Amino acid sequence: MSKSNIIADLTARGLVAQATPELSNHLAQPRTLYCGFDPTADSLHIGSLVPLLALKRFQLAGHTPIIVVGGATGMIGDPSFKAQERKLNDESTIKGWVEKLKKQTSRFVDFDAPQNPAQMANNYDWTHGVSVLQFLRDIGKHFSVNNLISKEAIRERLKREDSGISYTEFTYPLLQAFDFQQLFQHHNCTLQIGGSDQWGNMTAGTELIRKTLKGEAHVLTLPLVTKADGTKFGKTESGTIWLSAEKTSPYAFYQFWLNTADADIEAFLNYFSFKDIADISNLISEHKAAPEKRAAQLALAEELTTLVHGEAALKAAQRISTALFGGELDSLTEADYAQLALDGLPTIREAETTLLDALVKTELAKSNREARDFLTGKAVQHNGQAVTDEKLELNKHNARFGRYHLLKRGKRNFALLVLE
After folding, report:
1. How does 351-390 read in b/e, with b if 16+ C-beta sit within 10 Å?
2. Per-residue model confidence as pLDDT tens digits over 264-273
3. Nearest partner of 249 among 200, 188, 319, judged by Cα
4. Is 128 helix (H, G, I), strand (E, B) or coil?
5. Among 350, 356, 359, which residue's Cα sits nearest to residue 407?
6. Are 384 and 329 in contact (CB under 8 A)?
7. Long-range Cβ contacts of 254-258 (<8 Å, 24+ apart)
8. Which of 105, 121, 233, 250 gives 20 to 30 Å between its CA and that of 160?
9. CA distance linking residue 250 with residue 244, whole number of Å
């Protein structure tokens, strides 16, 4: 992709929500851009994938991305479209999260690219030494309170009599603008990208740069991902889908994308895949001709699992999927069972028990009576073998790897007992 075509490509994928005028012309030359990620947890979740992948797209088009981890802004919390104020975390916790996010985000851009290597920055580095008086005189004086309270994100919070907005969060746009000013001044960074809920914060930065440095800067916002059925993207019954393998297993990550609804798959391929637009169109045509094969979902799940977790993790996710739904349990490794215990299957952890009790405790059966009916009807499997004995002891001797008992009821209902 050439430098001049990046906006055309993003637009064709539906990835441009808002942009400052003349951005396409500005990007006709190699530019430096940034996106900020506040450490609000010890991992990013898949809601951060769109901007992370956008940075990668810009780098592939010849531009230089900077990932800014918010060691300073993370201590304040962005109020944008939040119903109530974030909990303030202590400095040591945030420092720990910053280091994890640095490592995590490095998977998405190339820090060793020969022409335009990506950069990493922490806004704590240029913020912690600035005194309150300095900040008020040098930054605060350029902002009108009237203008700030007119921004939609802040205006919505002001309407809420139950929570309102603290002065701490009210200053967040100034801090984000300060980031852009510093990056513009010291790294010749002229573009900031982020979610569409960040427009007000981002344009505050362009205004600060214009007023203090007489410079021209641009912003581009990306759409917030929504699902066709109205449910929240990135959430499942088991919770948030994280980018960390310690919080969401590669198997659960793979299954999330594999279970993408037909109504969402074309948009998600455009948002998250690096396939050409024409290839995506062909894939969608193939999917519509035989939706039961889920070719489009498979392609997306494979691409993203490899990108986020690596080739070995993809193979493990595929192996687990084949084992569960194809009955080839002998192929499962101890690490595979650990993934299933993390979040892949409904899981209980306790000492030895009977099969009847395990069926009820894992909620594969609602009662002892229903469990007996399932057993009598030969609808239950234990570690891949059909069983009917309700008194079967589930212990370390008949467990996989001395710990795991995989239970199956019917064709697609699974649960796991992990011996403690």
Report:
1. eebebbbbbbebebbeeeeebeebbeeebbbbbeeeeeeb
2. 999 999 999 9
3. 319
4. coil
5. 359
6. yes
7. 254/301, 254/302, 254/305, 254/314, 254/317, 254/318, 254/321, 255/301, 255/317, 255/321, 255/344, 256/46, 256/301, 257/297, 257/300, 257/301, 257/304, 257/305, 258/294, 258/297, 258/298, 258/301, 258/321
8. 233
9. 9
DSSP state of 4: G
Pairing of strands 189-195, 32-37: parallel
Distance separating alpha carbons of residues 401 and 234, to the nearest angstrom: 33
- Relative to beta strand 353-354, strand 393-394 is antiparallel
* pLDDT tens readout for residues 220-257: 999 999 999 988 898 777 789 999 999 999 999 999 99
Rounded CA-CA distance 83/88 in Å is 15
| pLDDT beyond 50 at 157 | yes
Asked whether the beta carbons of 62 and 2 are under 8 A apart, the reply is: yes
How far is Cα 41 from Cα 209, in angstroms, rounded to an integer? 30
Residues 6+ apart with CB under 8 A from 162: 84
Percentage above 90 pLDDT, the chain: 74
Listed in order, strand segments (DSSP E) in 48-118 are: 64-69
Q: How far apart are CA 193 and CA 180, in angstroms?
A: 11
Element (H, E) at 58: helix 49-60
| Residue 327: predicted pLDDT | 77
Write out the two tokens for 5.
Answer: 């075509």
285-324 pLDDT, tens digit each: 999 999 999 999 999 999 999 999 999 999 999 999 999 9
Nearest to 42 by CA among 256, 245, 305: 245
214 phi and psi angles, rounded to 5 deg:
55, 35
The pLDDT-based confidence of 178 (bands split at 50, 70, 90) is: very high
Write out the two tokens for 30: 């190699």
Q: Report pLDDT for 83.
A: 44
Cross-strand bridge partners of residue 194:
221
Helix then strand then coil, % of the chain, to nearest 5: 50, 15, 35
- Give me 12's structure tokens: 């064709």
